[in-house]
Every structure is written in C-alpha cells, then in structure tokens.
Design brief:
18 helices, alpha+beta, 720 residues, five-stranded antiparallel β-sheet, 23 strands, binds adenosine-5'-diphosphate, six-stranded antiparallel β-sheet
C-alpha cells in the first residue's frame, strides 16, 4: 500500500511524536490520553480505546481499559475486542452501533467504521487498540499503518506500567478533595487531568460517556453505567453503559433495565442515601440486586447537585473484592468533581430540549408566526407565515421588513393599506401594547386577523413583537351565512305565515261571498306553497351538502323535459314571451329526469322573477361546440342549455357570488321580489352531480344568460 508523500510524511511525524510521548515520565493513563489526542490530528476517529492486561497489577485485575477524551456514547463491543485479541491480526471493518432500546434516549442505530489492532510483542499479547469513526474513509490505510507503527511502543509502555503498579496504593495523609478524601499521588494527578477534560463537554451524553470511561480506567472495573435519578417517580433512568456484554443492534435485551425503582439495587441505595457505597461480594448480599447476573463486586457513587443525587455512577466487576478503599475514594472524588459539569450539561440539555419542542410547535402551527424586532424586521417566521399572506411563491427580499416589504407586496390586494401601516407604527409607538387587527385582502378575497404581542428578553426588556396571523375567511363566511340564513328564513317564513294567518282568521270570523272565499283560500294556498318550497329548498341544500343525493340516470331526450316544464310554467309566463329553440337532431342526455327538471325550473323561474316588466325569455338547447366550453370544462360530448332573459341583470361584482348559499343581490328590486338565495346553489350542485358545469354572463339593466351542460348518453348506455 503506498501513501501520498505528504500524508506519509505527516504520518511519520505523528509516529515520532507518539514515540516521544509514550516514553515520557507520566502515568500511563495520561500518556495514553495524550496519544489519543495526537492521533486525532492524523485520523478522524470518533472514539478510541486501549484494552490491556497488566501482568502485575492489583491482585485479580484481569484487564485495564483507557479511553480517548472524544467519547461516543455508544458502548464498546467487548466480544469484538476479544475476537481481535484472539485473531492476532489488525482488522478494519464496519460495525453497527446501538444502545439498548430506549437507553440514552436520542441515540439512533448507526453504522460505523472500526479498526482493531492487537498489541503483540515478544510472543505475548499486551493489549488491543481500537478506533471507531463515522466513515470507513476516516479509518483507511493511513490509520492502519500508523497503528502498526505504534504497536511496539505501546507494548513497552504497558509492560513498564505493569511493573510499576504495586506503587499504586494509598500513600500520604493529605486531603485533596472538599470532603477530605485522601488520594494517592497518581490518582490525584489523574483526577486533575480528568477535571479539565470534563469541563470542555457540554453535551449530556458525551459528558456521561467520558465520565464513565474515566471511572472505568481509574477503577479497573469491567463494566459500568450511569443513570439519572428521577426523584418524582423514585426511579433510576439508565443513560449510558459500558462492558455489560455486546450491545444488541435490534435493542434485544442484554440484561440491562432501562428504568427501575430506586428501592432495588445498590445504585438506588446510593441515590437515596446520597453517598457512595461499595459491596465487595454481592453473592453474600442477597438483598441487593446486581446490575447484571455475573457481577460480584459493585460500587455506586451518587453525583450530588444542590444536596441531592442527580445521577449515579455504578462500577461492576465479576471479581469479588475487585475494588479497594482507594478506588472508592477516587470514584467518590471523581463524582464530586463531576457535579458542576453535570449540572451545566443538564441545564444545557433542558434548554436544548425546550427550544427543540418550541421550535417544533413554531414550525407546525397553522397560524402564521413571525418574530419581529423593534424596527419591524422579521427575525424568524414559520412556514405558515408566508402561506397565510399568500407569499409562498413571492421572491422575498431578505431581511424581510413588515412595513417596507410586506405592505408593499400586499398593496394591490389590501382593502385598506392605511390601516395596516397605522397598525405597524402604532406598535412601534407603544411597544408594550398588545394589538389586534383584521385585514381584508382582495383577489382572492381573504380576511386575516393579526395579533401582535410584545416580546421580551430574560431581563424583561422589550425586544420586538410576535405577530400571529390567522386566516379567518371561513369563520367570517360562516358568520355571514348564519346571519343571512336567519334573516332570510325569518322573512320568508313570516311573510307567507302572516297572510295565511290573516286570511284564515277572516274566514273564521266573518261571512264572505263564495267568490271572496275562493280568492282568500287561493291566497292561503299560494302562500302555503311558498312555505313548502322554502322547506324543500332547505332540505335540498342539506341533503346535497351531506352527499346524500343519488342520481337515477337514464338516456332521456331533453325536448320532453322542456315541454313538460313550459306547460307547468304557463301561468307565470303570462307576462313574458317565451322563445324555445331546440336543435334537431339532438342526442339524448344521460340524466336524472327530476333533477334536470328542477335545474331548468329554477333557471326559468329566476328569468321570469327577475324580468318584472315582461320581456323575452329564450331557451336554447343544442350540442356544445368546443368554442362554447372553457378550457377547464371536462372533455367529452355535452348538450348545452342556455336560458336568456331581458330582465334586471346582475352587476359584475355580484356575479361570482350568486352561486353561494343564501346569497341574494341586495337592491330594492330583489328585496321586493323575494327569494331565499338557495335556488342557484342547489342548481349548480345538481348540474355538477351530473358531471356538467353551469355559468352565467350578465349586464346590469340589460339581462342575463345562464348556461349549463349535460352529458350526452353514449351509444352503449343508449342501447343498454
Ligand atoms: P333567489 O332567487 O331565491 O334569491 P337564487 O339562488 O335563485 O335565489 O339566486 C340568487 C340571486 O341571484 C338572486 O337573489 C338574484 O339576485 C340573482 N339572480 C338569479 N337569477 C337572476 C336573473 N335571471 N336575473 C337577475 N338576477 C338573478
């Protein structure tokens, strides 16, 4: 394998520096931490670990592990380490990293690059060096060559440490920690080095991971875990662990619980009691449930914040009496030194989470929200903000400014531009005031409601405003419909009811001639008909809206329906001239006879009603030509029906609204004529139910044209 010359040079420089470093007169832990740091300059790894077997360490010590300052909160796979040790060869591969399901909550399962190098020298295995990284490219041939070069140096360092170890016992009686613990000089040194690295970490999981790994290094424990204490529920919540068997990528249980009562186990006791506890042999303490089955020695140290345990560090070993008093003192001191960084990390985590939650709420609310500074500049806005103003597609200048940009862009649509300008300047004049404004926009018609509240910083000083803009068009429309419904229905009910009551009262109380009686009864009959029509229309609308109207469709010649209708409308047509033009031949239409009759009836009835002085009404029926239909019209063959009158006509601004429920053009004529404003909305719904379209053109004072289309019955349906 050949390396690029400059990178090769850099690698050689790293090896030279590492050699110098490893031979320095310092504790092994410190030298290794510096080595890991140095390697970071040459290899982009996420975390590193050295596992070694110190021959003459404390009695019974099986292995010692050292970790890099950079700490990935994923537990290491000890089975893999053993595999590398046994294989005797350096190995690069990719591994799946995961924590126990739910543990260290936000950790997703991830793929990582891994390199493991066994440290063989003189026919003996001294240890295993392992690195993990995000990408396999980060642990390429360069990393492999570097590690290979370092292995003999590491073997020497480990051998020397093994010889020196018996010196690691309690010595001196000076107090090093606030609680008066006494530490060996090497431990004192280690604690100082550790404190510095803890202070650099703000992220909770990275901090706990680093803390755990340092505790494992210092104690020689085979496994360890850190849990947070949930005082409200009296529970411990596992955050991070190391060494309890290999982690299961699928979150299968490797024997660790995620959350458990602080009533069971040594960790719970330590948390409740607020002090570190050590059990040399759990098999002799049946009352204490160990973290995992094969654990013999267990040490639990609470990390106290403001007088109560915020977290508990647990160290475990399968060797009974693995931890001596000096280990307990060190871990106690470590837990104490970790309190401040932990408190910081917990606050940071809390702030992070609450800002994350707020951010999610901000982004997903359908109300347009914008934080605006005191000058009117939009600092931050959610997606609904541009949607609600209809700006989703407009290229906004940044920074966006409410009075300069927003009002300018909206100007063509603003019903009252001054109101919005005044609203903005009022907000600047009285920054502590809460304001509200309804803004009407045209094209398309929209009504927006702006709520503007002052925002403040942590010192309560005003920083600007929060605008919450909601589209209230539908609410306003519903309000309008409701009040129109009430006024129309009450008027339409009251008028016929008054005359029915009046005439029946007359008939009951006085004698009239036969002619008079007949005339009165006829009026009562006509008025009752109006009432019945109103009820029909109301029911019709609600049935159509509920989608309950089904069509009973047959191929039918329209001519037949027209003839039936004109006979029916004969009396109403007395004042008008009626012109009927039906093309011949005309293909039959596939329709529901009664519904189409109702459509035609409504249109002809309107033509009669709204041409009070008579005039000509034309009904034209023929097959539609392409030029008759708009581009949006569904394709196919259609019959076109036109109803033309020479009546009042409809103003351009009213024309689009005549199809709305309860909409009636408001003028003296229509008020005199009477109606519910339901006819056309029913008519349109019925035409569209057939697949057709309806539209109108009109000139005020000249007359109106209503057109609609119905589907031609094709050969198949005609025969069927
Ligand atoms: P109604 O006739 O009961 O008021 P419609 O829904 O049939 O309700 O019509 C809605 C409105 O459209 C009417 O109030 C009227 O103002 C207007 N309109 C409908 N047809 C005509 C027409 N042929 N000429 C003039 N105005 C019409």
């Amino acid at each position: 394998m050949t390396l690029q010359p400059d990178r090769a040079n850099q690698a050689l420089a790293t090896v030279a520096e590492a050699t110098r470093l490893l031979h320095a007169e310092r504790p092994l832990a410190e030298r290794l931490h510096q080595l890991f740091e140095l390697l970071h300059g040459a290899v982009r790894y996420r975390d590193a670990r050295l596992t070694c077997w110190l021959q003459s360490a404390q009695p019974g010590t099986a292995r010692q592990q050292y970790y890099s300052d950079a700490a990935w909160p994923y537990p290491w796979d000890d089975a893999l380490t053993r595999q590398i040790a046994v294989s005797g060869a350096i190995s690069r591969r990719s591994v799946v990293l995961s924590a126990e399901a739910g543990v260290a909550t936000q950790l997703p399962i991830t793929q990582a690059a891994y390199i493991g190098a066994p440290i063989f020298w003189g026919g003996r295995l001294w240890g295993v060096l392992e690195l993990r990284a995000d990408y396999s490219g980060d642990l390429g041939p360069l990393a492999e060559e570097l590690l290979t070069a370092l292995l003999p140096q590491l073997a020497v360092a480990i051998a020397e440490e093994g010889n020196r170890l018996p010196a690691l016992t309690i010595s001196g009686q000076t107090s090093d920690t606030p609680t008066g613990l006494t530490l060996a000089p090497a431990q004192r040194h280690q604690l100082a080095a550790l404190t510095a690295s803890l202070d650099d970490v703000l992220d909770l999981h990275a901090l706990l991971s680093l803390l755990l790994r340092r505790a494992l290094e210092a104690s020689g424990a085979e496994a360890g875990a850190i849990s947070l204490v949930d005082h409200e529920r009296g529970e411990l919540v596992l955050q991070i662990y190391e060494g309890y068997g290999s982690p299961q990528p699928t979150g299968l249980n490797n024997g660790l619980r995620q959350r458990w009562s602080w009533e069971t186990g040594l960790a719970g006791r330590a948390a409740r009691g607020g002090r570190a506890l050590l059990v040399r042999d759990l098999s002799r303490e049946p009352g204490i449930k160990p973290m995992q089955g094969d654990v013999r020695a267990e040490l639990a140290a609470p990390i106290m914040i403001d007088g109560r345990a915020a977290a508990v560090l647990v160290l475990d070993s399968p060797r009974s009496a693995a931890f001596g008093e000096e280990v307990l003192s060190f871990i106690r001191a470590l837990a104490e030194r970790a309190a401040k960084p932990l408190s910081r990390a917990l606050h940071y985590q809390e702030a992070l989470e609450s800002s994350l939650h707020l951010g999610q709420v901000f982004a997903s609310l359908p109300t347009g929200l914008a934080l605006i500074d005191t000058n009117g500049k939009v600092l931050r806005a959610n997606p609904a903000w541009s949607t609600v103003w209809g700006l989703a597609h407009s290229p906004l200048r940044t920074p966006f400014h409410v009075s300069l940009d927003l009002i300018e862009i909206l100007l063509p649509r603003l019903g009252d531009p001054l109101a919005l300008t005044e609203f903005v300047s009022e907000g600047q004049r009285a920054p502590e005031r809460t304001q509200q404004l309804n803004v009407r926009l045209n094209n398309p018609a929209q009504e927006l409601q702006i709520l503007s509240v002052p925002t403040r910083d942590s010192q309560r000083a005003i920083t600007g405003r929060l605008w919450a803009v909601s589209d209230v068009t539908r609410e306003r429309e519903v309000d309008r419909l409701k009040s129109e419904f009430v006024s129309i229905v009450s008027h339409e009910l009251r008028t016929p009811l008054t005359s029915i009551l009046g005439y029946t009262e007359l008939l009951l109380n006085r004698d009239f001639s036969t002619d008079e009686r007949r005339q009165f009864i006829n009026t009562v009959y006509v008025e009752a008909g109006r009432l019945s029509q109103l009820v029909e229309d109301l029911l019709g609308v609600s049935r159509l809206e509920a989608g309950k109207v089904k069509l009973n469709r047959w191929p039918i010649p329209l001519r037949q329906i027209v003839e039936e209708l004109t006979t029916q409308l004969n009396t109403q047509l007395a004042q008008h001239r009626m012109l009927i033009a039906i093309a011949d031949p005309l293909p039959p239409v596939l329709v529901d006879r009664d519904k189409v009759k109702q459509v035609l009836f409504n249109l002809l009835n309107n033509a009669i009603k709204y041409s009070p002085d008579g005039g000509q009404i034309t009904l034209e029926v023929r097959e539609a030509r392409p030029a008759d239909l708009s581009v949006e019209h569904p394709p196919g063959r259609w019959v076109l029906v036109g109803v033309r009158d020479q009546g009042l006509g409809i103003a351009a601004e009213d024309l689009p609204r005549i199809w709305d429920r309860f909409y009636r053009v408001d003028n003296t004529n229509t008020r005199r004529i009477g109606g519910t404003g339901l006819g056309l909305s029913i008519t349109r719904a019925l035409v569209e139910l057939h697949g057709g379209r309806i539209w109108a053109t009109s000139t005020l004072g000249v007359g109106s044209n209503f057109f609609f289309t119905l589907p031609v019955a094709n050969e198949l349906t005609r025969r069927g």
